């Protein structure tokens, strides 16, 4: 198995786990160094998969200085750090993080996020809404807040996935140390930006450093431990990602009740009774169907103009992903300029989305035909779009580099079958 392969672990032998293409269940005893490398590549994909979802909601805000905008942006910035931590750990173990090949699909076939995480969820690219925030809370939820139905998978939370990774790193501690000392071809990116790097010359124990990196990801996402949804003193007791999205969902700031009581699904509202957070003005974008609006564009008389704007956004997104990949996998002296190029493309994406894509209306006649155009997806779209108001296109986040690579692989397979 190569260091670049994506291997995701699931539950114990014989566990009933819904898995997708390329996913396989691996008993804990067989989770070796190759498995860790594969799991870290999956972690890169998992962290990235949240970003288009959160970005689409953030871009949909009409004015970009609302508290709501800053809240979502703060989570996005930390998700970028989490992806970088996973990529640095993979690079330290001799792997080469594949970023330009990531092509998350929404809605994902079979549901869930990469690695078989939370298969009960069907993520959709959509505007900010109470319904979309429910999905964000599901993504960031600590296990204790899940229903019995939501627990019925190997990885019902992102935290479960990282628990498996933490256990594998600990069980393979000596192999991890040797691999880090041996180094690899990929770069360590961003040590001067405040998140961990794992170089072979670092005197600290790499196993402890790896476990600390995993803690950063899980503490910021779910909370420092099972009794809090704050990230802890290291992070100035900032709210976890779950807490920040819950503030937007309840439209109130977090304020622990007095007298204290456990936070559960039933008591959660009691923890969000602080200052009111007014609901922002949101552009009513049409949630993105699996075909990336192909059926809508075909019936829109102004479809070619909308297509140009959507393509321009996707080109910027592709350029960002390619630049990030170059930061880790290009010449060492170019990782900093490559990272800067990625940041420039992120700004392009914001501008192209807010001022171009989301100014393209979807004709009312086409909106009225959505149930015919998307019989299997109509409920998903209607739940996340107000179909009684004017509707606009939203960003699709199609990574052309990944799509082109998939097309080449399909062509090779087809030719091999001849």
UniProtKB/TrEMBL annotation:
Region (Disordered): 1-24
Residues in Iminophenyl-pyruvate dimer synthase domain copies: 40-250
Pfam assignment, any one: Ferritin-like
UniProt-listed InterPro entries: Ferritin-like (IPR012347), VioB/RebD_dom (IPR026820)
Tree of life domain: Bacteria
Low complexity: compositionally biased ranges: 1-22
Protein name: Ferritin-like protein
Organism (species): Streptomyces hesseae
Taxonomy of the source species: Bacteria, Bacillati, Actinomycetota, Actinomycetes, Kitasatosporales
């Amino acid at each position: 198995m190569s260091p670049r392969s994506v291997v995701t672990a699931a539950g114990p032998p014989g566990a009933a786990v819904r898995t997708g293409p390329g996913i396989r269940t691996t008993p804990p005893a067989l989770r070796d160094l190759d498995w860790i490398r594969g799991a870290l590549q999956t972690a890169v994909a998992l962290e990235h998969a949240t970003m288009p979802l959160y970005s689409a909601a953030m871009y949909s805000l009409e004015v970009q200085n609302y508290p709501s905008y800053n809240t979502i942006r703060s989570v996005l910035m930390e998700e970028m750090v989490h992806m970088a931590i996973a990529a640095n750990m993979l690079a330290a173990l001799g792997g080469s993080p594949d970023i330009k090949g990531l092509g998350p699909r929404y809605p994902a076939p079979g549901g869930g996020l990469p690695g078989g995480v939370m298969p009960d969820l069907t993520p959709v690219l959509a505007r900010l809404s109470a319904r979309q925030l429910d999905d964000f809370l599901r993504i960031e939820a600590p296990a204790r807040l899940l229903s019995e139905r939501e627990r019925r998978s190997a990885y019902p939370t992102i935290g479960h996935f990282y628990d498996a990774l933490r256990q594998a790193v600990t069980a393979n501690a000596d192999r991890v140390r040797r691999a880090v000392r041996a180094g690899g071809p990929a770069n360590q990116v961003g040590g001067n930006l405040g998140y961990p790097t794992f170089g072979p010359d670092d005197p600290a124990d790499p196993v402890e450093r790896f476990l600390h990196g995993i803690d950063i990801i899980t503490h910021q996402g779910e909370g420092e431990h099972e009794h809090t949804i704050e990230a802890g003193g290291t992070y100035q007791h900032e709210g976890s990602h779950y807490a920040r999205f819950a503030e937007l969902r309840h439209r109130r700031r977090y304020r622990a009740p007095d007298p204290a009581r456990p936070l559960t699904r039933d008591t959660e509202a009691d923890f969000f009774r602080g200052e009111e957070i007014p609901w922002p003005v949101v552009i009513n974008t049409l949630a993105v169907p699996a075909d990336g609006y192909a059926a809508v564009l075909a019936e829109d008389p102004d479809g070619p103009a909308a297509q140009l704007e959507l393509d321009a956004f996707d080109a910027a997104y592709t350029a960002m992903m390619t630049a990030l990949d170059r930061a880790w996998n290009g010449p060492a002296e170019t990782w900093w300029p490559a990272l800067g190029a990625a940041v420039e493309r992120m700004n392009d994406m914001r501008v192209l989305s807010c001022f171009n894509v989301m100014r393209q209306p979807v004709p009312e006649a086409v909106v009225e035909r959505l149930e015919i155009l998307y019989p299997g997806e109509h409920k998903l779209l209607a739940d996340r779009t107000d179909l009684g108001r004017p509707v606009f296109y939203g960003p699709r986040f199609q990574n052309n580099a990944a799509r082109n690579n998939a097309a080449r692989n399909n062509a090779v397979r087809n030719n091999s079958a001849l």
